[in-house]
Amino acid sequence: MKPGCDSPRQTLIRRTDQKFKLYALFLKSPIFGSLLQKVAVARFSRTLSTMLSSGVPILDALEIVARTAGNVVVEKEILMTKSSIAEGKTIAEPLQGSKVFPGMVVQMISVGEQTGAMDAMLGKIADFYDDEVDTAVDALTSLLEPLLMVGLGGTIGCLLIAMYLPIFKIADNVV
């Protein structure tokens, strides 16, 4: 290996670190951050609910859910939760300090653990956040429509000016 070159492992670690920072930045972004958080919570809740209702052990289910999270930050939170559960804690305890999972979600998970209806509670969380995602996407779409119209109008105006300006210059030269 040449001096100054990184080993493949160092490159992978750097890429993973950069990917983590990028996804953390996405979750903190002003407009899309809350939407991405809601999508992550809905995906986590729906997948874990399905796994638990199918009889998959909780540690295996959390491992699979972490891999399907679609976000490195959420994956890390779920894997930390899995290791805490392996140490004997509840699911809600490690999620309380999480920046990804809102307090309401942690409370509902805690209630689901206490009542023994974790899969049903996760299903309710997923339904709620699916509705929230739909509402947020509709709001973003309604915001984008006027911006697209203004942009399209500006583009058409520029094309018209670019098309008619040479004609007017020719007419000035003829007269």
Textual characterization of the structure:
Helix 3 packs antiparallel against helix 4. The protein is an all-alpha fold. Helices cover 82% and strands 0% of the residues. It has helices spanning 8-28, 32-53, 58-67, 72-86, 92-96, 103-115, 118-174. The chain starts with 7 loop residues before the first helix and ends with a helix.
Helix fraction, binned, reads over 70%
pLDDT < 50 stretches: none
Number of helices: 7
Q: Quickly give the structural class.
A: mainly alpha
Distance between the termini: 75 Å
Q: Gyration radius, to the nearest Å?
A: 25 Å
**Fraction in beta strands:** under 5%
Major sheet size, sense and barrel closure: none
Series of H and E elements: HHHHHHH
Number of strands: 0
Q: What's the mean pLDDT score?
A: 86
Cα shape: elongated
Keywords for this structure?
82% helix; 175 residues
Summarize the structure.
It is built from 7 helices and no strands. It has 175 residues and is an all-alpha fold.
Indicate the topology.
Blueprint: H1 8-28, H2 32-53, H3 58-67, H4 72-86, H5 92-96, H6 103-115, H7 118-174
